[in-house]
Amino acid sequence: MNITVNKSLPLKGSIEIPADKSITHRAFMFASLTKGKVKVTNYSKGADCLSTLKIIEQLGCKIEILNDKELIIDATNALKEPSSPLDCGNSGTTTRLMMGILASQNFDSELFGDASLSKRPMKRVIAPLEEMGANFNHNDFKLPLKINGSELNGIEYNSPLASAQVKSCILLAGLNAKGTTKFTEPYKSRNHTELMFEYMGADIKVENNSVIVNKSQLKPCDITVCGDISSAAFFMVAALIVPDSDIIIKNVGINETRAGIIEVLKAMNGNIKLLNERIISGEKVADIQVKYSQLKATTIEGAIIPTLIDEIPVIAVAATQANGTTIIKNAQDLRNKEADRITAVKVELQKLGADIEETADGFIINGKKDLIGNTTIECYHDHRIAMSAYVAGLICKKPIEINEFQWVDISFPEFLDLMKAISTYK
Ligand code: S3P
User: What are the start-end ranges of the E strands in 90-244?
Assistant: First the structure.
């Protein structure tokens, strides 16, 4: 599906952001380990989470869809050996977290994915899992791979990466391993696994950047998933850069290990207010008011990077409109996402007229540049590149085309409807 994006009138009104992708994956997978029934309310309907749901069904869970917002996962007879290979689609989270679950089962399984996922690095989880006693057949640490279920032993692992996927994989393996597993990361990555483990009664302890887990059984309990800050990010930046905008984005998860974008956009002089702060299933949630602002440049590096890693493409769009030079460093893992997001963002924003250069681990962006548009954007089969380009298109002087925009369905099938809801075109 190719779409055209035109220069936007002010964005106004209020929208509710759909459920968080990271938390939905965890709700589905952790429910599959409870041996009981879990009701999940407000789950993500993106293709990535549906890949996870299909896999837990193949592993013996019964799924009952109650209505548009709720489903029940009955894991009474799970997990059991799947009769066919498990399709992770485009989803790195599905792959890496499921590897942590499947490595310790008393059956074998096989994972595969689409062309993009089959190029992504899995050594980051294979190496520590092998240290725990896991057994894989793989080709150069990539999908497809076979998992020979084995009994695992706890380890102490110092991860070179601050990655929630690696951390969650090892903690899931540790939940079913002999002894204690301790995972330490250089900076704190998103902690949804730790919070949901606590919520579901796992034997877990958090000490600074370390998490310690002992073999334990997750208890069935109902989970309500809050809205996805990574999806809200596109609307936050859109409202900041489209003159005279004023919107409210409701029900957004603001967990501090995820919400680096709020801190950065505020430091850039963004007019952002958190309203009605509350806790839902162990996660902090707020409604967010965002108004058009004269942005100024900033530097983004170090410990904040893992807390906004998925938002960097759209932060780069904001930086094209900020006064001064924005520098983004230490984000080299962006090259290992659904696409090489450093090169993709640079190439596509340059096409629109932005002054942006790539470095090995980030960007240098000279802001206050009018975006011209009048070009066709590629999204590299990457949902976040597609949506970042859309946001940039809202301020281009001339319309832009975006090829293969259907990739947004990976995380955010509701994106265009919500954009329409705050548009003031009549
Ligand atoms: C995720 C962690 C991040 C993020 C991804 C989702 C998760 O990946 O980019 O979209 O749900 O744990 P890394 O852990 O590889 O940084």
Answer: 108-112, 135-139, 142-148, 156-158, 180-184, 203-207, 210-214, 223-224
